[in-house]
Amino acid sequence: MRRRLSNEFFMNYLMVFLLSLLAAVFAFLILNFADNIISKTLVKNIYTANSIMQYDYAKIDASPVIQNSGGIQIIDKEYRVVYSQGMDTIKKQQLTAAEFTDFLTNSKSKGIPYNYDIAFNPKGEFWLVVTFPTSIRLDFSIVYNREAVSKDMKNVAAAFTLVFLFYLFLLAVFAAVYSRVTAVQITKPLRKLIEGTRLLKEGDYSARIDLRLKNEFAELQDTFNDMAERIGREMALRKQSEEDRRKLILDISHDLKNPLASISGYAELCMENKNLTLKEQGDYLKIIHNNSQRVNKLLMELFELSRLESPQFSIKPVRTDICEYLRQTLGELLPYFEQAGFNYAFDIPDEACYAMVDTVQMSRVFHNLSDNAIRYNPEGTVVSVSLSKGSEEITIVFEDDGIGIPSNVSENIFKPFVRADDSRNSKTGGTGLGLSIAQKIVEAHGGSLTLRPDTKGCSFKITIAAI
């Protein structure tokens, strides 16, 4: 199943999204690592409640805390603030149990702009509260306090900046990789298509493209290959057509040259030689007449072939009992068979069968087949004609047991000027156009005229649609 290019882009974007998440995870890990390093330099972690704790709160040295913008408060077991120095966020001298509980709970809340470190002295029975303003802390929200020590602010800001820059660097790298992969997926098949088009333009019609893809480019590949194959066939047909046209002109020239030369020569002889006897003049005039008839027949058949190949040519078929029609046509041909010394055998059903036939044109087919058999076969040849009807078509077989057609000629026997004797002499008198004309007439009826292979003599098969 082919994957669409849009789906591939979606997968690529999904990959970039996952890579972005991976970059965020890396950034978080690096941030956590930086936090562990920086935390050792923060005053809130240096001057903790435990580090300055004394059994007698009067002996607690609060100066380093105060010097770093912090403060300490001592709360006894009665929840009274008995000692306070520096920053004071409690702002009360006496707390209730509930208030003190709320204070302890809120001291660990996220988003407050202070850092509280609280320790209990069991001997002195008091709580030591050390308070520092928060520099920068990320608790799903950014907390900032202007009262924080400038050194902490600089350290934390530098760490955040470095992590942010590294995160942007990772995104840039991932974006570059993604753009490269996407570009390769598009430009690589395009380059192959351009190369194939160039080869096609230069005349290499064997050029084909194999992208090994299953998206729209694969469809474009198939379209290109089909187009190249079609163009190759068209060019081969054009080349063959040009060759056939050249050969046709040579054949026409050759077939006209001999009789015209004979006509011209004998006419000139009759004009210049005044001493010819009447018999000689009659013989020469007969030669002139025969050759003129030959030229006229060739030109008429060339005209007929050209007319059949014209787009304007059309037949006028009528519903015809093909059995009765064939009996009448063969009856017209019997005198020619008998004159040539041929025997004949016809197998035509008595039951009527119908087809749409232009009887005038179809008669030309049988006359040409008969003429072809008589022209190239000796006396005693048997001509057989049979008709059979199928469910959809009617088949007529016209055959003889004569000399047959050489194998090197049979493949092209329906082309113009191809002759069974493979020679171009005037003995047979054929033009080489009869079978071409016959085939085109049958094809105009929607049928086919073919030469049956591997038969004794010559056997033609005609098929037309039955109605």
Automatic annotation (TrEMBL):
Q: Where in the cell is it found?
A: Cell membrane
Please tell me where this protein is predominantly located: membrane
Catalysis: reaction(s): ATP + protein L-histidine = ADP + protein N-phospho-L-histidine
A Pfam entry, by short name: HAMP
Kindly give the membrane topology term recorded for this protein: Multi-pass membrane protein
Enzyme class at the top of the EC tree: transferase
Histidine kinase domain residues: 251-467
The alphabetized UniProt keywords are: ATP-binding, Cell membrane, Kinase, Membrane, Nucleotide-binding, Phosphoprotein, Transferase, Transmembrane, Transmembrane helix, Two-component regulatory system
Q: Name one GO molecular function term.
A: ATP binding
What InterPro entries does the record tag this protein with?
A: HAMP_dom, HATPase_C_sf, HATPase_dom, His_kinase_dom, HisK_dim/P_dom, HisK_dim/P_sf, HssS/ArlS-like, Sig_transdc_His_kin-like_C
Q: What PANTHER family is this protein classified in?
A: SENSOR HISTIDINE KINASE CPXA
- Protein name per Swiss-Prot or TrEMBL: histidine kinase
- Per the UniProt record, the source organism is Oxobacter pfennigii
Q: What is the lineage of its organism?
A: Bacteria, Bacillati, Bacillota, Clostridia, Eubacteriales
